[in-house]
């Protein structure tokens, strides 16, 4: 998940480690702290695989105080995605199996890069996530029905809160699916390929 997110961010623009760490915290949910101890080993693996390159640091630029030294205490190493890295990223965003939606954390990362994902893949991921969450909802309902009489009121409220959260996610996913279907119909009406990824702001999707 971390390496996928790194490739996605570098696909948008080159970054140095400090900026990449800040952007990753936003992509991964804001509440998850990304340490340099996990970031730099991931970057090292991506570099060894040929997916990213590094630029020579500017010796006049200072690293933040909490950043570990890479080439000394001065300078920021800039990471850039390679052509092989872009191919790997597009390979990953094309995956629509259970690995893309069963885990809520990975689903959230995939959603953050949906504009790079083909429309039919986006729809399969959203529908898969909805099925997953609906199964979770049914399990929570069954558990609540079996244990209702044995729970104190605080535990009961906690379980109800969890069920309400899952209900909201199912409704949210249904709304996203409806928007995807509407967008697909609009693109067909406009003569565009409904399977094209979303164009970045200010750009037009490629025409067939």
Automatic annotation (TrEMBL):
Keywords: Coiled coil, DNA-binding. Residues 183-208 are annotated as: Disordered. Residues 6-90 form the Transcription regulator PadR N-terminal domain. GO terms for molecular function: DNA binding. The keyword Coiled coil applies. Residues 130-157 form a coiled coil. Residues 197-208 have a biased composition (Pro residues). This is DNA-binding transcriptional regulator, PadR family. The lineage of its organism: Bacteria, Bacillati, Actinomycetota, Actinomycetes, Geodermatophilales.
